[in-house]
Amino acid sequence: MNEQLNGFQQTEEFQNLNEYQKAAVLDESPACVVNANVGSGKTTVLIGKIMYLYLDRKIPLEKMAVLTFTNKAADEIVERLRKIKPDITSEQVQGFGTFHSVALRMLKSSLPVEKAGWTKEFTVMDPDEETDLALELIAEHGLKVKYKNRLKKRLEQEYQNWLSGKEESRYRDDLFRLYPLLAEEKKKQNKMSFADLLRVSTDLLRTEIRKEQSCEENNNGRIHPAWILVDEVQDSDVLQLEFLEALRGESAKIFAVGDPNQVIYSWRGTGDNMFFLIKHRFGAKELTLPVNYRSNASILTAANRFLQFGNRIQGTRNEERRIVVRNYYDPFQEAEYLAERIQTLHRNGKSYGEIAVFYRLQSQSEILEKVFARHGIPYELSVKKTLKDIPVLNWLIKVLRVSVNPSDTQMAAAVLKDPVYGGKNLSCRMERFTEDIGKRPAVTAGELFAYFELRDALHPSSAGYAEDERLVMDFLEKMCTSCNKEAQSSGGNFTGAVREFVNSSALYGMKTDAGEKTPGNMSAHEVAGADTDGGERTAATGRVKLMTLHASKGLEFDTVFIIGVNQGLIPLRCKNFEQEEEERRLFFVGITRAENDLELSWYTNPGERGVIGEPGRYLRMIPEQLLDYGNTGKQESVRSGAGTDGAGRKSDLRQLRRQVQDQIRLKREAAQKPEIVRVRHRKYGEGILVSEDEMMMEAKFEGYGRKQFLKAFGEIEILHS
Q: Residue 24 belongs to what H/E stretch?
């Protein structure tokens, strides 16, 4: 609608900004960090900055790198830009994405990755895959590495110490001998970890800077952007900071926005000082966005009690609604109340999608799920359920990964050793994929199904074949639609498009939202590029959101219930001051998701080990005049059955409690119950497979007991019925 305008400053979007937002948009300092209070229009300012540079300062979008922490955040920025200027093309915004995706794109297109030991056809491995490869190397080389159950975390935490030249690991084991072996094996198999993407691109960018400095002609614009804009900069870790510095080169300007009061991911390597570290490292000017447009006055007054950095949050809404505090005997009584309360809100005109329930631990959702289902309340459980949880699709992705990267012997072994799926010609098909079918610009799902002989690989005689075939065909159709479009638009081939697909899958996860979406109705983009962090900015679905406090970051709802505000749960018991400060920031994030109504509750009998049956200290930090104690009376504990409607009501709750406990127990037992695989031997008849490894199989036969067999002799037949 604004295509004919000469500049962004003449648009309605700019005129609607407040004075703090305008100052940030117009600032052209070599480096600027914006301390954006919660709900202050951070994304609006970022969009405004991009459009000001593009329309007023005539900086091409191709000369900007916009770095975000989720794929959805990058997509939202592009979508909002196109609302202002609809003719923006995908090619113009190739530099918009997560740190890892931008690094990946540069390694594929403009950086000499061959000098680092990989080829342009490398694939991306997720942290679990890297850990599995490390365990293989530990066994192969006889290394003594402690705490293998925490190896993934150890590999990440001690990597910088190894790079800096330290001679010994924290636990004085062979971990530092493992790193060079792992690095060499990844190059051999032509794949990179998440950390490799940033580390290798950083090293190559620094090499390019040195080359440019030694040349008479400055080629700085060839790789380094003119402007770098960073969203949620407070969540950066050391590797991302170094990548940012290398990407900047000699002359790029940096504009970063974030909120140090919302640092809640310390296990990822970030810290509460990262915002200020970036400010001082780049000599950045600091601006602020102090005005909150989201929450009512009571919520903001309470939030200011938990503010750790910066000035008080200023609100734009004068109306005050008290924050309700309720006490329940236990989570069962609370779940029943929540169901009735939410139904009442819905009858009074509030959409289910405007309501959310937050908790500290994912296990707290089980009771809510059962009770909400019993009451017919639609809900969406924010759990990162990925296609890795669906065995047949997990196996199929590995097949595709080997097909586009034949050097990946780790994945090839995983495919061929799979105890359930596979066929005799599969190895040859994966090896010849590019020559046989991958050079074409388009391939259909049916052609892929036939090429890999998936009918035989999925075993048509098995009881689960029909469902496996449906899942596979639906997935392939979505993938082929996406990959064919990519291959044709880029002038590439199907192999290259599939490689980009599996790389995106590794980076962002192949996610299906529990309680709402299944692989059968996911779009190709959702399958291959869904966020690992949620990242939706609004509650658009007509379902009540159930989620942890961590998952709530970046969202907003009309009405928020935060449950389990007990000492030992919110906040959790902390080992040190840093953990305690992060718990406080996490509660701050939770309460500031609410626009109008906020309700906090605690239990007399929490039922969780280590949780005390008394209100958490955060409740006592909220000013008394802001609170409505609802069913509790003024800070009084409710004894068993209090707040109910007599003996009949208490009897109903006891019955509900037993029903829900039984359902949860049966669900856990079913999940832990191992799958029974039946086998047949020509002499001993039918039996049950007990165990197997690469060479041997052990089975138990009625009347004969346990017997062991060499796989090479093929004496055992697996029954797939």
A: helix 19-26
